[in-house]
Structure formats: C-alpha cells, structure tokens
Amino acid sequence: MDSSIYGISWSRDSSLVVSVARGGNLAFWRTRENKKIAEMMVLDYWTMCCSLSPSGRLIATGGTRNDVYVDIVKEGTYKQIITPTFRNMSGHRGYLSSCEFIDEIQLVTSSGDGYCILWDVEMGRAVHYFKKHKSDCMSVSVNPIDRNLFISGSCDMKVCLWDLRMKKCVNSFKGHHSHDINAVKFFPNGLGFVTGSEDLTCKLFDLRVERPLTTFSNDELNEPISSVCFSKSGRILFASHGPSIIAWDTLTGKMNCEIAKLNIKCSCLEVSPDGSALAAGSWDHFLRIFA
Question: Where would I find the WD repeats (predicted)?
C-alpha cells in the first residue's frame, strides 16, 4: 500500500480482503497466497471506509467527498473492476465514516453530519435518513442475525439501535462513556454489541437487559480505541488501542494478550467470516493478517 489504511472488508468466503487507503487506493488481497491480485483508484482521495456486498460483486467506498461510490467487480473474479463508477450517490453533508451492505441492494452508511442513510444501490438513491445523534456518527454495524436492525455510534457518546422496518430508533444507550464512541460492532448472536471509545474503554452491552455487562480497560493501555470486532464464537474481543492490538476475554472481562504492537495507529480490524483470521489495517501502510 502507498499510504495509511483506513478501511478493510472481507469476502464472504474468507479468501479475500479489500483495503482502502489515503490517496484513493483500493486493493484486493488474496490472503492465503499473500499477494495483491487487483488494484484501482477510487474517486475520493481521502477514502475512509469500504464494504463488499455479500456476493462480492459490488464494492462500496466513501470518505471526505461525502458521496458513496459503488463499483462492480466483474463476475466476482476480482481481476477487473468495471469503470466508470456504477453508482455515485449523494445525500450526506459530511464525510463518510463507515458503510456496510445489508444485502445486494441495500447499504447503510454513517457520516460526520450525524446522519445514517439507508441506500438503494440498484436505484442509486437514498431511501431513508436516520437522525438522532447530535454529533459526528462514527460507525455502523448491521445485526448478523436480523438484518433489519443496525446500530450506530457517535461522538455524542451515544449508541442508537435502528429498525429498518419502522425506520426509526427503537432504543438508545447513553451515559456509559465519557468521550466519543469511535467504533461499534454487533455480537455474533445478534443479542449484544460492543463499543470502543476515546475514553480508553470498550463496553459489552446486552440488548435484553439494555445496559453494559462488561467494561474492558487496562491502566497500561492509554490510547483511544479506534476499531473493535469479535471472534466467530464471540469469546474473544479484538480492539485496537492506538498501535496495540488487544485480545480480551468476553467471559471474564480480562485482557487475554497483546497480539501485536505496531509503530503507529492500527485503524481498522475485522475477523474473517469463517473465523480463521484477523485482518488489521494501520497508518504504517501495512495490511496484516493474523491466523
């Protein structure tokens, strides 16, 4: 990679990971072969997020130009990206911080304008604007079991649970963090979620009791959390504390180990769908795979 990596996304078969970096560089990596198999430049120089569709046919990206760009991956082979951009969708008035495909047609995004937007990729337009946050919305996560639900985390220190069927916030969680929430991720069974914050802590919430069950913190970790994700079973929580990648035990709440300590910030983490590997993107230009 030529510059700092800001976003990563796995293919559903866990054979490939996509990364986006400053400069608009979008790269496709075959992880088992440890090589880059395709590369392209996207329209947004400061691309901050990416998401592969379930089939791997579409790739969505976005950043400081505020628009959502969707490109087609020809026949799912990743050997050729069809240009020009398949969809260029406008609607946000701030940078795109996060995006995730719900299915092949629907995409949800979060933005510095405080909104989340549901998009119809096939039609190339916004379907609904979700507004409840009072500051930058930093992260979204779609429920892995019930795809009608998603959560968003914001600099207003609040998490909102949204229902696509009702098109509104059905629950909110506030007063648990003292600083910005940078990252959110659903638990694998869809019954809970984790937050990562500028206050140096992660918190595991249970939707059934509507409160946090566990706080993950360590006095020796003095960097804000920028990304969080779970192992396939949910037993391990992975969190990036500045340059450190930490594994936490979700059952005991204790730190399991430090997987790696980089020379610079680890910006994004994601576990492969089959649970066999952890991908980590960082500001030192490297994409790392831990297995």
Answer: 1-39, 89-129, 130-172, 174-215
CA-CA distance, 151 to 125, in Å (whole number)? 21
Nearest to 77 by CA among 121, 38, 36: 38
The DSSP line for 150-217 is: EEEEETTS-EEEEETTTTEEEEEE-SS-SS-EEEEEE-TTSSEEEEEETTS-EEEEETTTTEEEEEE-
- pLDDT tens per residue, the chain (291 residues)? 458 999 999 999 999 999 999 999 999 999 988 889 888 888 899 999 999 999 999 999 999 999 999 998 865 455 555 455 789 999 999 999 999 999 999 999 999 999 999 999 999 999 999 999 999 999 999 999 999 999 999 999 999 999 999 999 999 999 999 999 999 999 999 999 999 999 999 999 999 999 999 999 999 999 999 999 999 999 999 999 999 999 999 999 999 999 999 999 999 999 999 999 999 999 998 999 999
> Which pair of structure tokens corresponds to residue 97?
């911080």
pTM: 0.94
- Taking the domain 132-291, which CATH number applies? 2.130.10.10
The rounded distance, in Å, linking the Cα atoms of 167 and 146 is: 15
Q: Counting Cβ atoms within 10 Å, is residue 98 exposed (0-12), middle (13-18) or buried (19+)?
A: buried
CATH number of 1-93: 2.40.10.480
Can you tell me the distance from the alpha carbon of 198 to that of 176, in angstroms, rounded to the nearest whole number? 12
> What are the sequence ranges of the domains in the chain?
1-93, 132-291
